[in-house]
Amino acid sequence: MLLLVQPTLYDLSNGATSKFASRNGVALSSSSSHASSASMLPTPRSEDEILESANVKAFTFNELRTATRNFRPDSVLGEGGFGSVFKGWIDEKTLAPTRPGTGMVIAVKRLNQEGYQGHKEWLAEVNYLGTLSDPYLVKLVGYCLEDEQRLLVYEFMPRGSLENHLFRRSSHFQPLSWNLRMKIALGAAKGLAFLHSDKAKVIYRDFKTSNILLDANFNAKLSDFGLAKDGPTGDKSHVSTRVMGTHGYAAPEYLATGHLTTKSDVYSFGVVLLEMLSGRRALDKNRPNGEHNLVEWARPYLRSKRRIFRILDPRLGGQYSLARAQKAAALALQCLSVESRQRPSMDEVVTALEQLQDTKEGGHHHLQKRPSSRSLDSNGVKVAMKGKPAPSPKPV
């Protein structure tokens, strides 16, 4: 059994640690959006309206207690400040609890009884995942609101979080191949693109590796909508809010002003893409001086095609096309532009990542070195170039 414990979220406006740890690997747990500033838009719908419009099942507490075998400790999939996530089983058609090993596997997140703030984030999950449906968002099966009990029921994501696959060192997590990393990046990008679309108009605000969950085939889905916000309406260019999120992922203009736009999410995507390329965490104080902040350390290498290999994850074993790596690095650099206007939209990111997919190799763990490819110049413009097999990455 895998125990998935996640990093803590922060109120980035003052550095105070949130009560709630970030969510999981199987739909673990919540983020921390403390009360918003007065300049935020009011909640558009009441609690009753949200629960009535949610296209999911309202479970009783007894049903979920039965489905998880009374929340047995050996069924814990993950835990954090929000609470614990338990493995359970329900009938695929009736959604009634079933015997362990039969029916559909679910992940049941049980909220710690922390009062209004925890309830607010529980409600935010129901609000967004109860009404939005997309192949690249984790599916909310149902919820439970009974007395003081607050629970959420998700589809089970057997591969857990991208964070564990990138950074955990154990026999459970083998190094991800280049192809799988690009496949996961594309799926996560499609999830963000859907949220930013006219159909949803949502700013995710907490894009990071621990919130990207993987199914059995390494298809990526976004989870944890505790910090998500409705996008700006009318002629407004941004949403003003208290700065919340996880250190290392937030866009510089959001940290400085509290102005939230879809380009804030694009910056966070750039950080995650860089983590996927390098195998390094966004912030890691265990690294040597000058390498604690991944974006600051990597930016000079991202600007130089000849030095790209110095940031690539040694666990890739050199099994990638240098031309494709250069193209992915150029995309990450664009997403990490200090000026938000210079960042691409998520639709543009999806288009760029689609060109990096290796359809022949699919999701297998070994990538043939490609004889040629296409890349981007420093301005993100497509240029033809002669690809060469990447040299084995050297320790930096």
Automatic annotation (TrEMBL):
Q: Which InterPro entries match?
A: Kinase-like_dom_sf (IPR011009), Plant_Ser_Thr_Prot_Kinase (IPR050823), Prot_kinase_dom (IPR000719), Protein_kinase_ATP_BS (IPR017441), Ser/Thr_kinase_AS (IPR008271)
- EC assignment: 2.7.11.1
Q: Where is the Protein kinase domain?
A: 71-367
* Record PROSITE patterns: PROTEIN_KINASE_ATP, PROTEIN_KINASE_DOM, PROTEIN_KINASE_ST
Where does the sequence pass through the membrane?
none
- GO MF annotation list: ATP binding; protein serine/threonine kinase activity
- Alphabetized UniProt keyword annotations: ATP-binding, Kinase, Nucleotide-binding, Plant defense, Serine/threonine-protein kinase, Transferase
**Which SUPFAM superfamilies does this entry report, sorted A to Z?**
Protein kinase-like (PK-like) (SSF56112)
**Has the keyword Nucleotide-binding been applied to this entry?**
yes
Q: Name one GO biological process term.
A: defense response
**Chain segments carrying region Disordered:** 358-396
The EC category is transferase
Q: Gene3D superfamilies recorded for this chain?
A: Phosphorylase Kinase, domain 1 (3.30.200.20), Transferase(Phosphotransferase) domain 1 (1.10.510.10)
Listed binding positions for ATP are K109
Which family is this sequence assigned to? Belongs to the protein kinase superfamily.
What is the name listed in the Swiss-Prot or TrEMBL entry for this protein? non-specific serine/threonine protein kinase
Q: What is the lineage of its organism?
A: Eukaryota, Viridiplantae, Streptophyta, Embryophyta, Tracheophyta
